[in-house]
Every structure is written in C-alpha cells, then in structure tokens.
Amino acid sequence: MIQPNILWILTDEQRADSLGCNGAPWARTPCLDRLAAQGVNFAAACTPSPVCVSARAAMLTGQSNPRLGVLNNHHHLAPERARFLTHAFVENGYAVASFGKHHYNCREVRAFPLEGGTVLDDRAGYNAYRVPVDEAAAGVVYYPSEFRHWILAGRFPGGVADTAEAKNAALALAWLEQRDPARPFFLRLSLNAPHTPVLAPAPYDTSIDPASIDLPIDGPDDLDLPAPVRENLLGKAGTGCLTRAQILRLRQVYYGRVAFLDEVLRQFLERAADMGALDHTYIVFAADHGCHLADHGFVQKQSFYEASVRVPFLFAGPGIAPGTVRTPVSIGSILPTCLELAGIDIPLPTDFPSLAPALRNGTEPSPEPVFSDLDFGIWGYRDGDRYAMVREGDWKLALFRDPQDKTRFPEDDGSMLHHLADDPGERVNLASRPEHRATLHRLLERIDTRDRALALG
Predict the structure, then answer these.
(1) Which of 7, 4, 6, 59 has its CA nearest to residue 350?
(2) What is the pLDDT of residues 222-244, one digit of tens each?
(3) Could you tell me the domains of the chain?
C-alpha cells in the first residue's frame, strides 16, 4: 500500500458561517467551497474546547481536555500527558512539519519535529499597530476597555505577501519543495487568521457589504443568559461599549479577513498541486474554535453557543465520496482519522473516534454525544470550575459540573439547554422549563457517564 500524504490546514477563531458552503451568502470563500465540494463537509462539527490552547492540545493528543487537565489558555500541558499522535507519523517514516501558530503550551515535548513560522507579522500586534497608520483611513475599531484593547477591525498596512499568513504558506511550500519525494509527508499549515488582530489587506477590508451580513446584534436584555455569560463574558467582552457602526465594521473586516485567507490558501494549494505535492494526499481543513462578532452581546469566544463552539471542518482526498455530514462530530477526531486513513495503528486509546469509516463509505458516522469543556479562570471568573457541554442530535446542554466553591453559586450552575432545530439562534434557554427536565437529566447523565470513564467523577 502506498502511504498517503496528509495536509492539515488549521485556522484560528473561524466561524462555521464564514464559509459560503455552509450557507452564508455574504461569505467569499471560493477555494474552501471548492474543497468542500470535492470532499466531505462536516456541517455540525464542534471544538473540544472553545479557546486556542485547550482545543489544540486535544486535537494533537486525541485526548479530551478534562483528561489532559488543559481547559484554557493559561493551562500547561504536562509532559507525561503530551502523547502527541503526530509522533506516530514520524515513527512510520513520514516527513513531518508544522508552520505558523502552534500554541499548545508544552515546553518539554514538541508535537512536530519541525515547528517553523510565526503567529503574527511585524506590522501589527494583537492590541496595536507596529508601524505608523492613519487609523481613521484604515477604519480601525479597538475594543475600548482597560481590560483588553484588541484590534477588532482595520486595514492591514501592506499587501497579501506581507502578512504572516502568506509568509507561513511560503515556508510550507519551501519545505514541500525540499522534501524527500520518496517519503510520504504530514504537513500542518496553522494560520492565525481570522483571529485578532482582525486586519485585512485592501481591498478585502471593504469588499463585503456589512449590511449583507445577516447576524443578530443582540443585547443582554434580548436573551435569557446564564451567569457565566452575563457576569463574565458580557462584563469582559460585552458589546455595550461599541456603537452599531463599529459592530458592522468589525463584522465587515472579519469576513473580509476570511476572504483574504481563502486567497492565501488558493495560491498555496495551486502551488502545491503544480509541484505534485497533492497527489495521493488527504487535505483536512478546520478551525480551532469560532467567535461571536456581537452575537449574544459579546465579541470573543469562550462560550458553548454555536458561534463559538461550532467550527468549519472539511476532509477531501483519495477514496472520499463528496457529501455533507449532518451528524455532530468533534474535531478532536482529526488525527485518529488521519492515522486510520494512512494505515497506521492508533498508538493509544483516544477519546475521539476515527471518522475514516464514514469517509470511506460515504455514510453518516455513528451518532455519539459530542463534548466540549472550558475553565473560565483565564479571565478570573470561577477559576477551577469546569464548564462542560454535550451535544446530542439537536439538543445541547452546558453547565458547571464540578464547582470548587459550591457556596458561592448555590442556585446557579450556569445551565444552558437549547434545541437547535427549533431555536438555531439559541435565544431561548430551556434549562428551567419543567417540560424539558427529563431531557436535561438525560444529557446530564451523558456528561457524567463520560466523566466516570475519564475517572473524573
């Protein structure tokens, strides 16, 4: 058997509705839409954790975040738990590398033998430009808070080739050109976009009409919000300090930044194809988590609303029948799936199933509960209290499962229960409705059963 190549493209903070193939008419993603048409689009994919470090640690190890003890960006992945599935490719003769953003918080053990590239370019940081810019002409929107001063929107001070995304893609192409063609490769291109700083080079920063972006601009009085959202996320990243014009601008540049990202990927994939690097190659595309863009009244991620927890996930390659999968899955399944498709034994038990049988057979995967976990302590809120989510079909439950201080919040476990088919905007929290008590307890038992299997409960 000829071992296939694996190309894994990972983006950061990218919403599922930023792809045209997911039904957003304002999205400008012809490259990714073409990839979706060539392979499988997992339309109900969830992140194992709606923040960068914990999502990436879970993907790289195939282990759930409660098992890893990594539940937010401040948590360190202990070396004894850093059993990266990428090492199995090295051990089976693959050339293995990653370029761009790595961000899994383990200093002692590396997931890839070669980790190159940069997260950001030299022209802008997360909170400020690094070169002189006429901010009015660039249409810059900052988050106006002493807590954070993120760049939420603006024009990038340079062209496409000056961005970190284009530079990381160039490094990956150079590595492909220099590789030993007799060996299969596993290459990850991991890009920061569309994560903050949300900057897009002209003309992408103004190419999308903000009036065409059909997303609600919710306020805290419009929704039945549990305490974790009302007290933490609205307090730290709420949109009350932004004008409507600023919200429209940040959405315009966000989707424009995705359009720019799509162009970088088009050029990268065309160059890779020209050198023959995409022959007998599986291509995986996913984002680590989404973001809100003022949905539900705040601008960041760190929630289990669909805007944050649902992500784009595409899989194309030899023997994969094109189609759309509606069954909820986790992107924690990426590496177990890649290993099985490569004919490599998965070296240790994983918490996420391989999706290879569904890809090969053109069928829906077995419907299983999908979990996501988070610790809000990164922003000083209920540090150490794990917030857990389970999605089963159209039902989704989130709540604090093992609070450290049961006296501080005796009546509020942060429960959120939504039925996505009836309420796709997640505007009605059903957790306190007596008629849904049986559903809540059934989903809670799904979480507790998983936790017992992880020896957490």
Answers:
(1) 59
(2) 777 787 888 888 888 899 899 99
(3) 5-368 (3.40.720.10), 371-453 (3.30.1120)
